């Protein structure tokens, strides 16, 4: 009997000791995460992949635009980060008296940081150096002012920022660009702004490659009150655009905004597919009046290389530069216009329906220098 009591006591002591050690270990783990660690307060059962894959882009909530602040969204606000990278420096430089090697070096760095690009930066600064040497420009202030004029002149030269629209026709605007740049989102925003202008808009879900693309466009359609024509997943995107044009014409819609895939099995396929979509969209009563290349400002100079692949193949008429809100590389606008000769027609400055604004060279340059 005594032996039994001893065994029971030993088991009890062992259990208490085990419990204490586990408690200490738990406490240590919690401390090592630290009280401010977000993981510390979350249950261990949270799914790991809680955020969607980037290409399965969700449509943001209806109040996303409201969150961007009261009043209309203006270009100046949308390019806060680019302004942050350049404007302070340009202002400080203006107040310096003379121009030396360090000034040129800093100016070059600032322009490259804003992603104006090597070729454009070199051309701009070479021109200014020559004008300083010849005595046409005197002092730092004159150099900065000349840079401003030069930038504005080159943007205005390539400016064709109005969107083409043929009265009485079933206009088709095609949106092209690699995956994830913001084509579908831009279509949603564009539908809203065109409908606000009194146009009757229909959306064509020409991205049949990615399963969720049609649903994403449907959600935008519901949100802005536009009809969406969809095809079968994996079906022929040209057939979707053809159906959309027929439907638009029958219903008296004057503008079809056609989404396209950003990715197919190979790049060649994608370009060939886009050419076919364009040909089909041109069949009467359809009239392709804009082919908008959507570029993501955060990808900087890589965007230019992407652009070149689309240019000739589908006859791009202009650029929509998205995600300007998320980057200090807004100088890419200058490179797009100077190196590709394409006008930047609109810029995306957020994920909400109102975050698409017409590009104005004067406003853009003003925001950088003032
Ligand atoms: N911050 C910000 N995000 C944007 C902007 N435009 C688009 N986005 C976001 O970028 C992501 C991709 O946008 P999508 O419209 O799905 O891009 P897509 O080109 O249609 O992509 P694919 O269909 O995969 O080819 C989404 O999360 C959008 O909300 C913008 O101007 N600013
Ligand atoms: Mg898309």
Offer a concise description of the structure.
With 370 residues, this protein is α/β, with parallel strands linked by helices.
Question: How does this model look, in words?
Answer:
Helix 7 (139-157) packs antiparallel against helix 14 and helix 12 (301-314) runs parallel beside helix 13. Mean pLDDT is 81; it is low at 11-70. The protein starts with a helix and ends with a helix. Strands 3-2-4-1-5-6-7-8 form an 8-stranded mixed beta sheet, with helices on both faces. It has a domain at 170-316: P-loop containing nucleotide triphosphate hydrolases (Rossmann fold, 3-Layer(aba) Sandwich), CATH 3.40.50. It has helices spanning 2-33, 64-67, 75-78, 80-95, 101-113, 118-133, 139-157, 183-196, 213-224, 237-251, 267-281, 301-314, 332-340, 361-369; strands at residues 170-176, 201-204, 227-229, 255-258, 286-296, 318-322, 344-348, 356-358. Helix content is 52%, strand content 11%. Bound molecules: guanosine-5'-triphosphate and magnesium ion. Residues 55, 57, 177, 179-185, 207, 210, 213, 262, 322-323, 325-326, 348-351, 355 line the site of guanosine-5'-triphosphate (GTP).
Keywords summarizing the entry:
single chain; alpha/beta; Rossmann fold; 14 helices; 8 strands; 11% strand; binds magnesium ion
What is the typical, i.e. mean, pLDDT? 81
Q: Would you list the SSEs in sequence order as H and E?
A: HHHHHHHEHEHEHEHEHEHEEH
Strand segment count: 8
Largest sheet: 8 strands, mixed
Uncertain residue ranges: 11-70
- Beta-strand portion reads 5-15%
Class from helix and strand fractions: alpha/beta
Name of the CATH homologous superfamily of one domain: P-loop containing nucleotide triphosphate hydrolases
CATH topology of one domain: Rossmann fold
Q: What is the CATH C level class of one domain, in words?
A: Alpha Beta
Cα distance, first to last residue? Answer: 94 Å
Strand order of the largest sheet: 3-2-4-1-5-6-7-8
Q: From the 3D coordinates, which CATH architecture of one domain would you assign?
A: 3-Layer(aba) Sandwich
Number of helices in the DSSP assignment = 14
